[in-house]
Amino acid sequence: MIFSFKREVAFAVTGAGLILGLAGCLHSKPLPSTPVPAAPQVATPAPPPPATNTLPVVPPRPRPAADASDNMAVNILAWDAVAKNYLAGAGETNASFIFNLTNVSPEPVIIYDTSTTCECTIAQLPARPWTLAPGAGGQIHASLDLRNRTAGVTNYVVVFTSKGNRLLTVAASLPKP
Known about the structure:
5-stranded mixed sheet; mainly beta; Immunoglobulin-like; 4-stranded antiparallel sheet; 11 strands
């Protein structure tokens, strides 16, 4: 007889001789007229009640889309800053940001669009697509909706261009309630 073992083989010695007990085998059958000792039954404890979390759940900081890598060379567009911070006053509902940029490359740069990491962040271009000739400059306006916020907020604006992408950061600090 050929046995196929799946998990383990247990050996038991009785007064009648060696009995082969197979646990978890696919094709095993007990030997005729030889009882196979049953495994002892172990009571499993009841699972603990689900934990209740009394702390508020803080969502992770949003990240830009996978195709939004910051891969623009430094000699294409010159920015006044790629990260801007805003200190909100009590009762303010909006944080505004202006990013100044200049085409420092010898070729025109086309800015196709922007994307943000949260619906509460908006970025505006003068036109879509927006072509900047060499030496030309302009502004990208961004805003953060601060309503229903109790702490600081950081989001990202991705600028998609013909020469690569630029990742801009907008952050606002809110006063303690």
